[in-house]
Amino acid sequence: MGFGQRAGKFNELGRIQSIRPASNPPLTQVESYTITSVGQPASVIHTRDPIFKPGTETALETNATFFEPSESYGSDGVPQYSQYVINKVIDPTTPISQYNEYFTVTDPGVMSTTGAYATDTNGGGATLIPRAQSEPSTFRKEGVVQIYITTSSDADAEVAYSDEGVDWCAIAFDNFFFNLVAETASVRSSYRTFRKYLNSAGTTNFAFAQSTGSYSSNANSFGTGSTTYNTNGIYRSKVEPFFKRQSDGQQCYLKTNVTFAGASVSASTNDGGSVTATLDTGGGATPVTNPLGFKSYTEGVDDPIYTATPGSGFLVSLKVDGVEQIDSSSDPTAALSHTFTNISGGHSFEAIFGHKVTTTSTGDNPVSITSTNPQYVATGGSATITFGAAPDTVAFNGVSQNVATDQTSFTVSNIIEDVTVAATNA
């Protein structure tokens, strides 16, 4: 028995039984409807006849997004459909709902370390000591919740408004002591975790002590954690399964994002200098207390000025939002500032201080220096010096080095002070 022979109503091409504004989920930015039809899904009927909005003579948009209908059957065997439709072409960048909500957020403190150097006491030990520059504080902050429809198969399904998975501040310590007279060595290491949200700006550090010919000792600390932390970081997306699009069968998801009004700067540095910040609040520029770590500002109003100032060292790197600000024309002894004008969004300010490596070449037939001279290297870092030809001798800070007769490059490691590399050639 054919389709048309089973019942007269099966010959219907389809008709709309009801159309009403959809209430679940609440889509406040776009028009959405649940349409009940018989005979054919609403999307099929829509291609033939206009579907009118409730109480109006206005049809749904031609390019409205229809989702796969659910199908059931009436007592007479006629198929009935309930179909969800959004009166718009949906793309992942268009919010379908938006509202404000208050959240509990944490402004992280700043963890740093101080180095202790003992060349004549404590057996020549070098140590690093952790300390908190500022403690975390918790407060309420208004966030903007936006819901999107996405079809990404890589959607992050973590629960929204959760701080689980945010890095703790952790610091690993390594201490090495070499007795050059007795030809012995000792190693000590430890690992510590600190309060959640206490970020690790400034915790990667190096300390060194030595007595020429007797001993050498160094200590390292390696900080891990979120050095570019901001309050947006603890609110990840919430993704829930939605409907499949009827046009292509793509599974859609509701993706919830949370952002906060305002702006922030995350600042970090190491030993050898300092980072300061000032903010003009109408009565002249005033210092910003504890500028390291995360600091929030009023979006579109504040113009915080961050300055990196060399102290005992040189400014060897300054990155603003990850972009290096120092080039060959920069003076490494001078302070360098950046103004975040009409600040908005999250920013970073990372200053690295270090030391100078100067190379000289002397003798009756001095070789050429092909590497940059002088070089400025972060504390604890290394520098490679290259020559146009192999010199006869090389000395680091006046101490002769064993070099091969054909060696044209030399590397200085663990630089904790200004270094002079002297090459001679007869």
Tally of strands: 30
Distance between the termini: 109 Å
Query: Quick check: average pLDDT?
Result: 83
Largest sheet: 9 strands, mixed
Supply the number of helical segments: 2
Helix/strand class: mainly beta
Q: Fraction of residues in helices? A: under 10%
Strand percentage, roughly? over 45%
The geometry reads as: elongated
Structural domain count: 4
Our Rg estimate from Cα atoms comes to: 33 Å
In the predicted model, the low-confidence regions spanning at least 5 consecutive residues are 1-10, 156-160
How does this model look, in words?
It contains two helices and 30 strands. The protein is mainly β and 426 residues long. The protein has four domains: 3-86, no CATH class; 103-234, no CATH class; 262-354, no CATH class; 356-424.
